[in-house]
Amino acid sequence: MDQETKTILSVARAFKNYIESEGGKKTLNNLKYLSENDHLVKVLFSKLQNGNQRIKTIFATYFMFLRTNIKPEVIVKIINNLYIYEIQIYNDYERKEVECTYCDGSGEDRCDTCDGSGEIECRSCDGTGKEECYECDGSGAETCGNCDGDGKDEVYDDSTGEDVEVQCDECAGSGKENCRYCDGEREVDCSTCEGNGEESCRDCGGYGQTECENCYGSGTEESYDEYFDIGYMSIVVVGSGILKFENTKMTLENYEELNANDKIFSYELTTANYTDLDDMDYEDRFKMEDFDEPFVKFGDIYKI
């Protein structure tokens, strides 16, 4: 027995005794979570040189619990027959959110009312920019301020020494003069559009864009294709039988059946679970091709 193996068995026995004294659980995956905040656990782990030795120690500890009279040489055979495999779990297929094809992902569409300009013809003046002068009621004239509308004015006649009536010079006898507000034009600048003939579009608030009717402003829509969510795991098992599954695919149902019934899956340790299947990013999705139900894809398998 080499020194590495002796160290692994020694640490495993120490873990077994410590866990028994603490009344801890003896499941394989629970042993993985031995707290390094615990001083004794930290000291024991420090005797191991790498992650593979740590995995072997956890398996050795577990089998010491599982079989109280197990011989050291049997444990050595077990820990020297460990294989780690990586799998991708394609589960819970659904439609993927993709960029809205109608608005190219902007969530907006050109306003139909103003054709995207943000402006429409002023409804008060029908786009003319003018409205009837409110001071003269559109007549263009108002009562002459000099003759009060009489068309005549009194002036002093030096020859007679009396006031005489003459034609009003301001209104030329008409009694009217040009409206001071419209200067006789009968119209003034529209008070709504200030004379430019346009006003802000009320449908888009002058922005020129409205919420996309296809995606309701989200910028995304469901794809026509179906996708699987992907989860990633690394698992350690006892026995070389796992090698026959390297780089293969099977349905998730068949994989779970192997876990439950096949000997090569009897003792397994999940060493990593990188992705929570309930919290997937859209980028971590796989388009349905070979399978129309959840499946498992095996990666490389190698001996620890």
Description:
Among the domains are: 1-80, no CATH class; 81-97 and 225-304, no CATH class. The chain has helices at 3-22, 28-32, 39-45, 51-66, 72-79, 252-261, and strands at 82-99, 108-110, 119-121, 130-132, 141-143, 152-157, 162-167, 176-178, 187-189, 198-200, 209-211, 220-238, 249-251, 268-273, 285-287, 295-303. With 304 residues, it is of the alpha+beta class. The longest helix is centred in the first third of the chain and has 20 residues, at 3-22. Helix content is 22%, strand content 31%. The radius of gyration is 46 Å and the shape is rod-shaped. The strands form 6 sheets. Strands 1, 12, 13, 14, 15 and 16 form a 6-stranded antiparallel sheet that branches. A hairpin with a 4-residue loop joins strand 6 and strand 7.
> Low-confidence stretches at least 5 residues in length (pLDDT < 50)?
274-283
- Estimate percent helicity: 10-25%
Terminus-to-terminus distance: 17 Å
Round the mean pLDDT to the nearest integer and report it: 84
Number of distinct beta strands: 16
Question: Could you state the oligomeric state of the chains shown?
Answer: single chain
Percent strand equals 25-35%
Structural class: alpha+beta
